[in-house]
Automatic annotation (TrEMBL):
Family: Belongs to the purine/pyrimidine phosphoribosyltransferase family. PyrE subfamily.
Species of origin: Pendulispora albinea
Binding site residues for 5-phospho-alpha-D-ribose 1-diphosphate: 94, 124-132
Lineage: Bacteria, Pseudomonadati, Myxococcota, Myxococcia, Myxococcales
Domain Phosphoribosyltransferase: 43-149
Descriptive protein name: Orotate phosphoribosyltransferase
Function: Catalyzes the transfer of a ribosyl phosphate group from 5-phosphoribose 1-diphosphate to orotate, leading to the formation of orotidine monophosphate (OMP).
InterPro entries to which the protein is assigned, alphabetical: OPRT, PRTase-like, PRTase_dom
Description of how the protein assembles with itself and partners: Homodimer.
Coiled-coil intervals, chain numbering: none
The EC number(s) this enzyme carries: 2.4.2.10
């Protein structure tokens, strides 16, 4: 497929579906990756985490932070490879979907002191519209940390690239895949009365 660039072994990890999906960020999109079994074989992920760690290392970060669940699993492996601190963010319990980028994440209180003043790479398994990494970024800043790099196994579309450029930090990944995102009001699939697929 001409729109895919990936390190060897990465494509096989993802079950790629095309259709009409409602996403974590509140957008609608035409691409869905099944991520539930991504961490089934820890050694397979460890090899990819090793390569991602190698690419993040030049950023000179003190810690890696990922959003639960998948992003945090990966962040822990990358932190282990670099022998630096691992942190995680979790979705706010009362964070309801509604509008774009409406989901909030928090960092557990027990981690706040360790994060203060640290340069942190925000790592997710897959970045699509970027709602989880944006919310994690905000939560890190609230702890006095300095988000300094973004990383992912796979980046979908261009939202992550734009966000990294706006923030002036590197975006590191092992693969990229084109996709389309729309606000629900502008979704051409909704306009064509295509029903939402289950996720
Ligand atoms: O770029 P985004 O708009 O944030 O979309 C990608 C996010 O969606 C998935 O997480 P999900 O919300 O399914 O949570 P999970 O990791 O707990 O499965 C994935 O693991 C990313 O964190
Ligand atoms: O954007 C998302 O929320 C999302 C996209 C995707 O492909 N898979 C997933 O689990 N979430």
């Amino acid at each position: 497929m001409s729109d895919i660039e990936m390190v060897p072994g990465l494509a096989a990890l993802f079950d790629i579906r095309r259709g009409h999906f409602e996403l974590e960020s509140g957008h609608h999109g035409d691409l869905w990756l099944e991520l539930g079994a991504l961490f089934l074989h820890p050694r397979r992920i460890a090899r990819l985490a090793q390569e991602l760690a190698r690419r993040i290392a030049p950023s000179g970060v003190d810690a890696i932070c990922g959003p639960l669940e998948g992003g945090a699993f990966l962040a822990q492996s990358v932190a282990s490879e670099l022998d630096i601190e691992f942190h995680y963010s979790e979705r706010e319990k009362h964070s309801e979907r509604g509008g774009l980028y409406s989901v909030a994440y928090r960092i557990p209180r027990a981690l706040h002191a360790a994060l203060s003043g640290k340069r942190v790479a925000v790592v997710d398994d897959v970045i699509n519209a970027g709602s989880a990494i944006r919310a994690t970024w905000t939560a890190l800043e609230a702890c006095g940390a300095k988000p300094s790099a973004l990383g992912a196994l796979l980046v979908l579309g261009s939202a992550a690239e734009h966000y990294a450029r706006d923030k002036g930090v590197p975006l590191v990944s092992l693969g990229a895949l084109t996709n389309s995102l729309w606000s629900p009001a502008e979704c051409p699939l909704c306009k064509a009365a295509v029903p939402l697929d289950p996720t």
